[in-house]
Each structure stands twice: as C-alpha cells, then as structure tokens.
Amino acid sequence: MHLHAPFSTPRRPLALMGALTLGLAACGGSDDAPSFKTIELNIAHINDHHSQLDAFAATELTLDGVATQVELGGFARQTAVFKSLAGTPNLLKLHAGDAITGSLYYTFFKGKADAQMMNSICFDAFVPGNHEFDDGDGVFKGFLDALADPANGGNCKTPTLSANIVPQAGTPLAPAGAPAYLQPYTIKKIDGVDVGIVGVTIAAKTMNSSRPLATTQFQDEAKAAQKAIDDLKAKGVRHIVLMSHLGYDNDKQIAAQLTDLDVVIGGDSHTLLGDFKAVGVASATGAYPTVVKNKSGETVCIGQAWEYAKAYGLMNVKFNAQGSVASCAGKTQLVIGDSFKRKDSAGAWQPLADADRAALVTKLASHANVKVVTPDAAATQTLSGYASQVTAQKAITIGTASEALCLMRVPGGSNSRNTGVAGCETANTLARGSDAAQVVAEAFLRASKRADFALQNAGGVRTPIAAGSLSMNTAFTLLPFTNVLVEMDLKGSEVIAALEDGVAAHLDAAVPSDGAHPYAAGLRWDLDMSKAKGQRFSNVQVRNKTTGAWAAIDPAKTYVLVTNDFVAAGGDGYATLKPVYTAGRYVNTYLLYTQSFVDYVIAQGTIARPKAADYAHQKVITKAGVALP
C-alpha cells in the first residue's frame, strides 16, 4: 500500500502536508486518480434582514388553496428555526449580508439590536453587505463590536468575511495595534475535513450608494475571491463556499469566472429562489439551489433566501471521492406563525376556529414552501426590550420647525388637512402647494449620494408640521409607512413623462388619486392643469448639485432620481416608472424613508420652508384656469 500525493490531482493541486493533515489522501488506485473522503455539507442561511426584526402581521398567502392572513417572519422565528437544526450533521450557519439599516431598530440602536438577535443564532460567518456602510466605517465597526460583545450575547465569535474590502490601516475597521475586523476567509472543520468560507462584497454599489471612508478600498470581486480561494488551496483546503453579497445574477456570473469553487450563498438582490406560486408569492426564475459550472467545468450550487427574515434556506451538498460536488439539493421556506385569518361571507378577515387552525397546521407540516414556527422565547424577550425602548425613543426631540410646514396634496385644492395649524390658513391659495412634501423631498435628496433630484408623492406625506419642537414621533406620524428610498436612472424625457403621470392620476383617472401629485427637490416646473396630459408641464429645470444653478432639463440626458419604492414600482399611477423599475434601472438604497427625514432634521437643527426658487411648483394654473400666486 502506498500513499498517493494529492498534488497529482488535476482538479486542485494541494500541498502534500496539508492533504496529510486533512486525511484527504486515500490508499490504493491509480497514481493520477487519487480519492478523497466523501463528505456531506448542510448550509442554513439567511440574507438581507435589514434590521427588520419584527414579524410582518396580516401578510396574505394562499394556504391550502385559500387566501389566508398569517404572521410572516420575525427574527425570533429565525432563531427557533436555526435552533431546530442543531442536530443536523455537518451544519454551517451563514448570513450573507445587509444585516442593518431599514427599520427603527437601526435608527435608534445602530446595529446593537441586530447584533444581539444574530447572536441568538450564532452564525459561523457573516459577509458585510453594501448597507453595512450606510453610516460609514465607524458605525459598521460599532455593529461588529456589538456582535462580539459578551454582554450582547457575543460569545459566538462570528467571523466577518470580505476578501475584497481593504480598510486603510489606522481607520475604524483596521485599528492600529489590533486585529483587523475583516478577514478574507475562515476555515471550518466539517466531518474531519477543512471547509473554506470566503466572503466578497459588491464594490461599485457600496462605493457609489453607501458611505464608506474614501480610504477603504473595494477591490475587483472576482480577482479577490480567486486569490482567497488560491490561498486556501495552498493551505490544503479542498472545499470552498463563497459567501457573496453581489446579487443572484452576479453570483451566476462570478461562479463561471472562478476555479475550485463549490457553493455560493448569496445576498443583495433579495432573491427568493424556488417555486412559490402555490402560496401566492412571486419568486425568481431560478431553482433552489441553482446549479451552474465554475471555470473548471465543475458543479457549483447557488442559494439565496429572500429578505427581512421572512425565509431561510437549507442546502445539502454532497462531495464525491474526486473532491468535487456530486449533488446538491434543498429548499427555501417562508417562516410563519400558527394563527390564521380568512374572509367570511361578508369579506371581513376572521380568525380560524381552533379545530380548523389545528388541521391547517397539521397539513402545513409537510408543505414545501412554508414552515410553521413558534418564535424562540428568549429571542422574543430580548427583542421586546428593544421594542419598548423604540416607544420611548419616539418622544425624543430631533429639531425645530421655525414656521409651519403646511400640507397640501394639489396646489389650489382643499385646505382641510391644515385645520388648526397656525400659518396655514391660506396654504391652498398658493402655487407652492405642500411645504411638508417639499421638505420631505429635500430630505430624500440629501440622503442620496447619487441623485440629481428627488420625487415624493403628495399622499405619502400624512400631516402638516406646526411651528415648534419636532420629535421622532412627529417624523413617524408624518411618514408612517415602511417605504425605502430607490435611486432610478431616467432620461429627462422619462422624468417629464412621470410628472405628467402623477398629475393625470388625479385629473384623468377613472378613480382619481390626488395623493399621486408630484413634489420634488432639485427639480422645478410650471404646471397648467387646465391643459391635456402631455402638455401640462413646461419650463422643467434641474438644479446643479454643486453650483446650485438651474438649467433646463435635457430630454436625452440620463439623470438619477431618488424616490420612495412605492412610486418607483409604479404606484399611484406612475406608469412611466414601472417598466424602468421592472427592468432593473435602479438601486434600492434600503434607507428607510422616515429615517432619512429624521437624519435631515437632525443635520439641519431647524427646518423651514425652502426658498421660493427651490419649490418644485414655480407657476401653477388650476384645472379651472386660475393662476395661483
């Protein structure tokens, strides 16, 4: 019997000593066909939870063929799911990035709540997403400190992996005289065999839409990933999992560029892989797992698990005696509660009777798409502590309004929404329309690094703002929804068409919606509502972000518009934007729109009505042909 050196394998040359250490070399057989220990790997994973720690109440799914309201997701349910997998052999628990930004838990706690909830799972690795840098390297470091803090449950020692992020020495993520916060890879022992886990973070998107330090480098994703894989090979590591915060389409592309890659666990695109039509949820045109080939022609298995702690993925990967992937299988499941509502004969949602509820729970036990889960008690208690603090935080003062910001939907319309607000008695007689919507748009423009101008629909702003002190609760009453900001690449002609859509939605639609009326920052116009659609907007101008000078919009030029995701997806009649959104000509910042307004108020200290020249509406003629002052 003699030992065959693994460096003779045509797949992955390895150092002999590393192979001996791993016990991967086998006895007997041909010199040029060494065999390796066959192993099986199970990977449980989530991604893009974006500080969405609470469950989504009253979510409508189709269960057993019937429209049913359920409680969907919630991080405490994820904790229970991962704990239930504790007996699964050879298990890796991975989080593929964008843990933070997107809810009040981030607004108030800057990642501490997320870290403590993540520690209730104890992930084996975490890759930073682009949104980890939304408030800069320092805030990201604070989140990682919380993740490692024993007082925060931080005994998991979860490594943070990104091979293509290189912070400058002496900056928060690479402090002088201390270990760097980011590592390119980690190695986990699985069934006696070392498995390498490499991280990679989307580069251009992070640099362009988040706020990393200018000194923090974001290297080419594929080159950095390959270097890390090669370094692992040199250490004798044979099986490679890439944790990718690049997006599903990019995952398929990068897999084809890399040698010696076996698995990709992804994030960023919020992709739900698999077929969820049976439960009434639209999913991607991709299987779970998606199977592609790497640069060497070997099998690579790709998985991603949607968003907001609504789902988890569980992938099973089998490796053959040649060290390659023999097969992969698995599924993504939505995690739901065990209480259900269905419509009665009058169309009202009613809870299921106990017997019907129990029967449905039993039937769902074998369902491929959903998993009924009771939230973990300890994680629920942890979260409740933060939830009570959120309530208290809402009372905190964030700034002052030096004058009333009146609420209008359409200039010249009803003034009823301003009843009792001093300074707004004649707001409906003025061309400028809604001060509140105008200021919200200004806040959005400040929040976006890329945008040339911002758009806000009138109905998305719910209350006027009286002069005086502003609290967090003021902001969340003004902007009560869970919308996020989206940056869209639009031709000037498309921008004008979208403005026409917003006005047509209340002037021409069979069911008019004055909530669609457009307000903007960095964009202004003359509006004649007595004319037909397509002729109502004139003298549309764009404000230069650097000089402040106004110039006519160029119909052929591409601009970046920031707006809320409801409008971006074509809501409120914005038909021009819908195909742009569907075609992917946008970047979802995942910045909670209310948080963006709060940040604006805090930065300004005192807010007021914009200068007259900065209002979106410069000249307005009403539908009746009356020119407003």
UniProtKB/TrEMBL annotation:
This is Bifunctional metallophosphatase/5'-nucleotidase. The keyword Signal applies. The keyword Oxidoreductase does not apply. Pfam families: 5_nucleotid_C (PF02872), Metallophos (PF00149). GO terms for molecular function: 5'-nucleotidase activity; nucleotide binding; UDP-sugar diphosphatase activity. The lineage of its organism: Bacteria, Pseudomonadati, Pseudomonadota, Betaproteobacteria, Burkholderiales. Residues 42-271 form the Calcineurin-like phosphoesterase domain. It comes from Acidovorax carolinensis. One of its GO terms (cellular component) is outer membrane-bounded periplasmic space. One of its GO terms (biological process) is nucleotide catabolic process. It comes from the Bacteria. Belongs to the 5'-nucleotidase family. Residues 431-578 form the 5'-Nucleotidase C-terminal domain. Keywords: Hydrolase, Nucleotide-binding, Signal.
